[in-house]
Automatic annotation (TrEMBL):
EC number, as in UniProt: 2.4.1.-
Example of a GO cellular component annotation carried by this entry: Golgi cisterna membrane
Organism encoding this protein: Biomphalaria pfeifferi
Protein name as annotated: L-Fucosyltransferase
Top-level taxon of origin: Eukaryota
UniProt keyword annotations, A-Z: Glycoprotein, Glycosyltransferase, Golgi apparatus, Signal-anchor, Transferase, Transmembrane
Signal peptide: none
CDD domains per record: Fut1_Fut2_like (cd11301)
Membrane topology: Single-pass type II membrane protein
A biological process term (GO) from this entry: carbohydrate metabolic process
Pfam families referenced in this protein's UniProt entry, alphabetically: Glyco_transf_11
Pathway(s) it belongs to: Protein modification; protein glycosylation
Amino acid sequence: MQRRLFFLVCGSVFVGLGVFTFFNPIGTFMSTLDSSINQLYIYTNSSANNKENTFKLLSSPPNQNKSLAIESSSTTTTTTQQTNTSQANVTALYLTTRFMGRLGNQMFIYATMVGLARAQNRVPIIKSGGDLVNTFQITNLNKDMNTDGWNVISESAYAIFNSKFMNLPPRNLIVTGYLQCWRYFLHAQDEIRREFTFVPSIQNEANTVLASCRSQLQNHVIVGVHVRRGDFVSAGSEKYGYGVANASYFVKAFAKMRSLIPNQNITFLVASDDMTWCKNNLNDSSVKLLTEGNAGNHFAILSSCDHVILTGGTFGWWIAWLANGITIYYKDFIRKNTPLQSGFSDRDYYPPGWIGLEN
């Protein structure tokens, strides 16, 4: 009995060992296959250059794709929320100004404000436009803008470049002064030319006058001539520093313009605040005097000419700048050793390429 029991136990052990030996390679093979599948899955996704997700895949077998998708969606949502929050915290900075003087002065002030704003990622805005909005199609206008409490930064010289304006403090500001320097807005000149698009009524008037001239003077180059006298000839203005061009200046300017565009028929189209002086002193057969009209129309006509000759003043300056052709200017418009000269720089006031002549 005991022998039977011994042999029964031994037989069971041998059978169990045999079964284990048979199935153990199968288990090892299945484990190896599962591992290979994991490695293949990881390699395939890593080879797609998705480096951000490589670490996730290394720590996650294929049967956890659903959880990975949830994790990825959560990460994307969090990033988007952070971006939106960051954008919401960015507040626009505004720049505005206060206008002084007449049209030419206002144009300098406005152009400088726009140029400074664009150079420093600010929004240019004006509450009222003075003569500007009656003459041009100004877009940066917001009558409801509240500027109470805004800091004011003023110029130290009316026509000398000041680098402090190119590095304004990070707050809403009001820049003041005459700001007569082309350097402040050179980088924004395309936008400023668009801003100084004449209102239709003024532009249509200019087009009519120029069309009449060109029909009578076919194949002529038309040179706009602005003669500023008026208040400049007073004793007070002369003492302050304003210079006035004589007839000799125009003789030189006409000759210079002819030398710059040789073999051309030229007509000098003249506008002035003293047309009587022009009739008596501009004795050139190529001169044509404009009829009396308002300043805005004369401005539009002369700035639509091919080239410009000017004497002095911001009105004539902007006529030449908008015409964008050859410009000849009176060099002694601001006389040396005068109060006006102390705040004036030729190279900051007159753009490169403009030609200065004396009497």
